[in-house]
Every structure is written in C-alpha cells, then in structure tokens.
Amino acid sequence: MEEYNATELEKIREEISESRKKRKTCITICGGTGCHAYGCLKVAQAFKDEIKNQGLQDSVDVRTTGCHGFCERGPIVVIQPKGVFYQRIKLEDIKEVIAETIVGKKIIDRLLYVDPRTQEKIVREKNVPFYKKQKRIIFGNNGFIDPTDIRDYIALDGYRALTKILFDMTSEEVIEEIIASGLRGRGGAGFLTGKKWEICHDVNSDVKYVICNADEGDPGAYMDRSLLEGNPHSVIEGMIIGAYAIGASEGYIYVRMEYPLAVKNVTLAITEAKKLGLLGESILGSEFGFDIHVFRGAGAFVSGEETSLMASIEGKRAFPKQRPPFPAQEGLWGKPTNINNVETWANVPLIINKGAEWYSKIGTRGSKGTKIFSLVGKINNTGLVEVPMGMTLKEIIYDIGGGVKDNKKFKAVQTGGPSGGCIPAEMLNLPIDFETLTKAGSMMGSGGMIVMDEDTCMVDVARYFLDFTQQESCGKCVPCRIGTKQLVDILTRITQGKGEEGDIEKLEDLAKTVKDGSLCQLGGTAPNPVLTTIRNFKDEYEAHIRDKSCPALVCKELIIYHIEPEKCVGCLLCLKNCPVEAISGERKKVHIIDQDLCIKCGACLEVCPPKVSAVFKYTGKKRDRILKKSSQKSKK
Amino acid sequence: MEKSVDELEKDQRELIHVLHDVQEEFGYIPAQAISQISKRLKISESEIFGVLTFYKAFSLKPRGEHLITICVGTACHVRGAPMILDEFERKLGIESGETSEDNQFTLETVNCVGACALGPIAIADGEYHGQLKTREVDKIIEKLMNTKRNGAD
Predict the structure, then answer these.
(1) Are A602 and A575 within 8 A, CB to CB?
(2) Which of A71, A367, A537, A551 is deepest in the core (most CB within 10 A)?
C-alpha cells in the first residue's frame, strides 16, 4: 500500500465500490465478542470453505463483521444485499444455507427469527422488532464492515470527513460545527464536546494530546468495546478531526485489558491507516500531522476517570487529581489534553459529513443525537441498542428488548453502572436524556441498562455495587476508602438478617458524607445505588431488617429450600444431585431436606422437573414455621 | 537538567507496558524481574511494587495450570453468578483469587466480559461456558483435568 493524498483517496473509494459491485451477494457473520463466545469463528470459516467447495468465490463474498448488537441470537448471519437474517446458526446449517438461500434463492424457515408476540417469522434484519425502533447512525455500519480491512470503511464514505476538514475548514470552524451539533460526551458526564475542544484549543502550548477513553469499566456495558472492535476507523477518524481542531500532534487510545479483540482490531486499524497516509506526518498530503498509540489498561476501574487515566498512561498508579487545573489546561505530562469517550469520537465524522443541522434534529432539546445502550439482565432480547435521545425506557425495554425474561414481573432498570441508580416501574415512561436520568437519581453513565425482575433483591443489588466500588476505590480519599467499606458492611449485615433499626438512616447519612467528601466521581457517585434503592424500594430494606425476610428470595441467610410433600413424586433426582447429601428419601417416597446440612446451592430446585416443581424457596414467617417443624421432628 | 528529567519520564511511561510483557511471559511478576526493571527504567523497586500491586492485571504469585474466570458483572450477578462462584469455590476448595495447593487451578473473577447475553458465564482456559447452571460446574472442572492428562500423554 502507498500513502494517498485527498484526490487519490476518492479514486480508491470509487475503485473499491466498483469492485464490490461484481460480487453482489455477501454473507456477513457477526464477529463481536458475544458471537465469538457462541463459536462464530468456526461458522465463518465453514462458510468460506463451503463457498470455495462450490466454486462460488467469484460471486459471493464472506465477511466477518463487527457486532450486530443482537447478542441474544448469536451466531448471527445476514445475507446482503437483501438483508436476510438468520439466527443461532450451527455448523450443520451451513451447507443448507448455501444450497437453499445462496444458490436456490429460497428462505430457510427454521433459521428465521420468530417474533414471540405475533409468532410471525421475520425474513429481513431491518424488520426484526429488535432493530425496527432503533436509529443506528453510529452502530449500523458495524454489520457491513470487516474491521480488519480498511477498504470496507473507505467504501462506506470513511475518511471523507477528514478530507473535508483538512482542506475546507479551519480548526475554529470544526469546533463551531461540533458545538452547533449539540454533541455531549458519551462517557457519562455529558459535557458539551465542542466546548471542551474549544477550551483546549485556546490554551497556548507547543505540545497537546488527545485521548480516547476506552476503559469501559461499568459492568454490564460493552458498547464502546463493540465500536472499537467493529468499526475502529470511525473512532480513529474522529480523533484525527479532534486533534486537528485543538492542535494536537499525538493521541492515545486507552483500552481496557479485558478486551483483547478490541486491542487487536484497533492496533491493526492504526497500522493500516498509517500505511495509507491517514495517520502520521502530512496526512493526505496536508500540512497536518498526527499519530496514535494504543495503551492497554491494567485492570483498575478508577482509571476510567480522566485524571486517573492520564496518571496510568504516565506509568503511575491510577490516582485522580484535584481539578482545576483541568486536563484541557494541564493534562498528560502537564500538557493540554482533550479526552473523550469512544462513542463520542465515533459521532464526530458523522457530524462533519452530514452537518450539525442534520445532527441536531435528532434527540431532545438538551441532548442531541443517539445513544447506544447495552440492554442486559433479565431481558428477552439482550444486546446493544442505539436509539435517539428522548425515547422512553418503556419503548426500549418492551418494544426493542421484548420485555422481561420468562414472563416475570419487571422490578427496576439500573442505568449508569456503579455510579447510577435503580429506576422503578412507575418511572418507565421517562424519556431518556442526560437531564431526566439525573433527575431520577440515576445517570446516563456510559449506557449500561440492566433490567431487574421480581427475583432480584434490591438490597443485594445495592450491596453488589458498593462491594464493587469499595474494591475499586483507589484509596486516596478517606470518605471513599473508609465510607464505602462501612456502607458495604452495613448492607452485608442487612442481607444476612443482622440488620438493626436505624440502619437505613445510617446508610443515608454516610452516603452523603462519601458523596460530598470524595475527590473524584468514583466516590462522588458510589452511594447512588444505595440512595436510589432506599428511595424506591424502602419496603425491601424494612423486610430485611424487621422481618428478617428477603421478598425476592435471593439472600442466602434469609431463605430455605423446602420440598413440598404433596408435590414430591420421589424421583430421586434432587437427592442424587445434592452435593452435600442433605436430602433423604427413597424412590416414590417424599424427599426431605435436612436444613442443618443444606448449603443453599439451589441444585435441587434446578433439577426438579418443571412438571413436578416440588422444590420451593421460603423466607420470613413461612420459613420460620418450616424450620420449627423440622427441629421438633429431629428432637423426637 | 530538564533533558534528564525528560528521559526519566520516558522511562516511567514504559513501566506498565513492560509489566504487561513480563506478566504474559511468566504468568506472574517474579521478584527478579522487579529488580531488573528497576535498573533498566531507573525507577525504584518500591515504586514498581506500588504500581504493580495497584492493578489487577499483575500478580506476584504464579497461576495454576488451569485458569477459571467467573464473570461477576451486573448482568451475570442478577442471573445468578454468585451461586456459580460459590460452587466453583466449594468444588475446588479455594476462594476466588487463589490457586489450588497442587497448582492445578486458579480461580478468578472479572467485573464484566461483555458477553452479557450468555450470563452467567465462566471462562475456562479461554473457553466460554454460557448460561451456566450450578450442576454443570463439575463437568467443566472434569474437562479441564482431562485436558491436562491428555496433554501429558
């Protein structure tokens, strides 16, 4: 490959599109981490082999693409140009797909997605309810691009925005355009991106840096990873545009180490971009030069905080710093630094290409554009969804997500990761944007959306998050280091049935101190899960403290497993599966759990046949009655 | 003077890269490596120790033959990851973060692997086991033990 100038890039773009036209049919296989776990690589290889065997390689393309988002149904195969959508593809299906659909132009019914509501079989990807209500302006190209081939990105108008700004716009004009678009940071805080650039642009310095924050630490959020894995060039192009706007010559992409595929793909993308003259000195023949390094994180949640992230790049412990000075003034190695999140960067080329006016028409008054959420937990359609700001939680969870798993009752949705809060059913009509979520006591965060049902204990969820932040606290500030520990201890006590009157007030009081007294947002937001669960689910806290009962039947110390004698058919299944031999009984005779031996692993409940369903979990008074009975029996 | 400070900074910025390399090569950071890095990068051993113990990626102890990682992200948590973790701990007789005495197994947790559709998940020597049930834990451990035996044969 050789380095291109702007005219040559356009020429190459036409050549690529022209050559692609010859091979009209393209089998795309989702290659995201979710589908990897399902074994998509073997599926892709089998498709390639079979196409070759059949001598179809000149008319049919096989492409492993980025994540399509509908992880629930992986491995996903979409056949373009018609967009035929096959799901949960197995190796043994491949010969049939090629013979029937590719050669015979027929649809294979059993591989189609069935709408659980209407029982209708859906042929095309765009008609699947999961995709229908989405607006995939950032994420949509993932399904068409092989992230390891820069030509795929170029064919889809890639690096066109870069040409535009390098030759037709001044740095000030770029900043004005981004400000006018209303784009706000997707990392969580929602600061106006253009304004952030302007501040950094206005600082006088010979060296400036731009950073892409890909240290996606929120458990349950993985949209940044999917963008970096699936469409790395969109992030790189955004960074080059940002660097041009603020006058930076060097950039870093800080990737979480738990994302090996993202590291691999983005590193390869940078190498390819360099070869074509899209990175390095005099980009596309212009006077502007810029280079990007990939930095692998080392497993510390706090390094997602911008000042900690910079300390980490400098090779130090990821401790946050007091602000001001802000990174825009004194950032990496004391130089002005602009840091944005992956999704923010990916928005930039789109705004330049389509214009701020077009962009600002999407979304709400204060929050423009779309947001990618990872819709996970107790939901039917787990996956990544991109929706315009202002869509209600209800639409996302029910229309796109297909509702709660196993027809259970919805209890809450948790947004914003460990910094966010739990939003109850009464607030499902809330249109989502930065402000409304904050008002609801939660936050946008990076976009995790974890659905919880009636089987989720909210006290346990609060304990889970506080345990997380306590372990991830860097230890610099006392209120965060000790405060989160105390919060976990109290919450743990409550979940073990050792809660006392006054604990709720103690939690609230302590939460305020941690919030006010911490330097960075890790501590500043850590109490949110406690506060929102107390606010919206106080009855559950009270049940744990006063009645020593866990209404959701989650907290081990507060529940027992019990076999209902009138239902048990004596099939020996639970008895055989009990790892501690706590179950006694004979064939066709009622089985009994010895409560003293039981370790509450749940194996008996798991194996009891659904038709029989004799094993139950009990808490509170019912639990006490059963325990009393069994202790009387054993005395006899 | 300024120039030499610049040089020092450049050295420090390599520290995490170097630690990653050593961890990958040996599976942990041997004491000998710390003193070598200290000499090469001109950073004190205590500073290196501070950095490496701050991050989860680095370990001062060698890992076992087989690595089992349980995802304890939020999505997996609400789908029952704690029960899976309990079962692994019980079966292996070690707590998460520990290595079994015979050096066969290391059990770890991770905050999220981003494969939430498959939760709860365990990753055994790189292989994903999704939508796990507690009764499947035995099979996973057995499979790993057999892999070892076959490998030795």
Answers:
(1) no
(2) A71
Q: What is the pTM of this model?
A: 0.93
Number of domains in chain B: 2
- What's A408's DSSP letter? P
Co-location of A301 and A442 in the same domain: no
Instruction: Copy the structure tokens of residue B123.
Output: 């990753």
Give strand ranges (E) for A40-191: 60-65, 77-80, 84-86, 113-114, 121-122
Examine the domain organization and report whether A277 and A295 are in the same domain: yes
Q: Are residues A174 and A302 in the same domain?
A: yes
Predicted pLDDT at A630: 84
pLDDT at A1 over 60: no
| Average pLDDT of span A609-629 | 96
pLDDT digits (tens, 9 = 90+) for A143-174: 999 999 999 999 999 999 999 999 999 999 99
Read off the pLDDT of residues A375-402 as tens digits, 9 standing for 90 and up: 999 999 999 999 999 999 999 999 999 9
Instruction: Assess if residue B59 is contained within a domain.
Output: no
Q: Which residues of B touch A37 (CB under 8 A)?
A: 115, 118, 121, 128, 130
**Residues of chain B found within 8 Å of residue A450, distances taken between Cβ atoms:** 74-75, 78
- Closest by Cα among A489, A541, A477, A488 to A514: A477
What distance in Å separates the CA atoms of residue A549 and residue A528, rounded to the nearest whole number?
24
Domains in chain A: how many in total? 5
- Of A414, A418, A437, the closest CA to residue A523 belongs to A418
Considering A410, A430, A453, which residue would you say is the last residue of a domain?
A: A453
A603·B134 Cβ contact <8 A:
yes
Contact A601 B58 (CB under 8 A): no
